[in-house]
Amino acid sequence: MLEWANNARADYSPNLNLLAVTVLTSMDEPQLRSLNVHATTEAQVKHLADLSLNAGIQGLVCSSLELAPLRARFGYEPIIVTPGIRPKGSSADEQKRIMTPHAAAAAGSSYIVVGRPILKAADPAAAAAAIRAELSRSVIPVTAF
Q1: How, if at all, do strands 79-82 and 19-21 pair?
Q2: What angle in degrees, to the nearest 10, is found between the helix axes of 41-54 and 67-74?
Q3: I need a labelling partner for 4 at 20 to 30 A (CA). Which of 25, 92, 119, 139 fits?
Q4: What gap in Å lies between CA 54 and CA 5, rounded to an integer?
């Protein structure tokens, strides 16, 4: 399926980047076990990343906690989008594997996804501006969307 999707992308929309989701940021190892996945979260993410990138997919969606092993394994070529980003002091909500915007950028995230910490803020514009300011101090440029 991944190879087929990548072939279709190459034929019809070569500028499109396909992203494969690894393990959801709201999942932990007990939840993986309930799905009959007996690998550690990191091992499962690496396995799914290998399958996806070997099929030609341009990037991954994963927890920022897996950034270091993925960047060590694949370098900075694949796009890596990290949801579950929470500014310091924010509620984790149902997210189990989270990181701050600055830490995710420093760990190698290409793009971060911040939802509820902005949407639920008393002043969403100020919350977004604070995250942008935090990212401006990051080692590697990251886009928030």
Answers
A1: unpaired
A2: 40
A3: 25
A4: 13
Long-range contacts of 89-93 (CB under 8 A, 24+ apart): 90/116, 90/117, 91/116, 91/117
Domains in the chain, start-ordered, CATH in brackets?
Answer: 2-144 (3.20.20.70)
Nearest to 97 by CA among 128, 72, 68, 62: 62
Question: From the CB of residue 88, how many other CB atoms can be counted at a distance below 10 Å?
Answer: 9
The structure's pTM equals: 0.86
In tens digits, the chain (145 residues) has pLDDT values of 999 999 999 999 999 999 999 998 888 898 999 999 999 999 999 999 999 999 999 999 999 999 999 999 999 999 999 998 988 888 777 787 888 899 899 899 999 999 889 999 999 999 999 899 888 876 555 555 4
Q: What is the CA radius of gyration of the chain?
A: 16
First vs last Cα of the chain: how many Å apart? Answer: 27
